[in-house]
Amino acid sequence: MSRNRTERHANCPHAATWRPLAASRPTMSPAWRGWVATRDSLTARLIAAGAGRVFRVRLLDQRLGKPRLDEARALGLPLDRLAWLREVALCLDERPWVVARSVAPLAQLRGQRLERLGERSLGSWLFRQPGLERSPIEVTTARPPFHPVAGPWGRRSVFRHGRFAVLVQEFFLEEMADELGLPSR
Prior knowledge:
Blueprint lengths: L2 H8 L8 E2 L9 H7 L5 H8 L5 E11 L3 H7 L7 E10 L2 E11 L16 H5 L6 E2 L3 E3 L12 E9 L2 E9 L1 H7 L5
């Protein structure tokens, strides 16, 4: 990979700086830690918190493309490799509470049929996989690079199931914070 290409991606104004969840302890409120640190299904937690509201996954984009530098590094991929990219909004009563971006190496997608998820959550598939492993959670306070609305926290981790790996990045939005009465951080 050329030095200029690396610098261009590394200096991208929308590139998130990710750090281990433990490093956020002094700045993250206990209320947010309860959401960000959970290792179970975020979809299930949102549905429970919605108290009867209609939950929906809104598909924003799904395509083959090259991952960003930080995404390729998280997956251990060369930057020039194609990946399956999917961006969704997790909504309650049509209001986005979370936006998410998933990145899976194209070479590992055979037979997974993730392109058929449509407006179903990736978590509904992931958490049914036997032997699913999840990397430690990393966090950021950066704006989602694929969505215009910011929020207080973003988190990401890599899920592995056999040879399959997918990076899942979830950004909690202000709408969620307002609805649940969560502090700004």
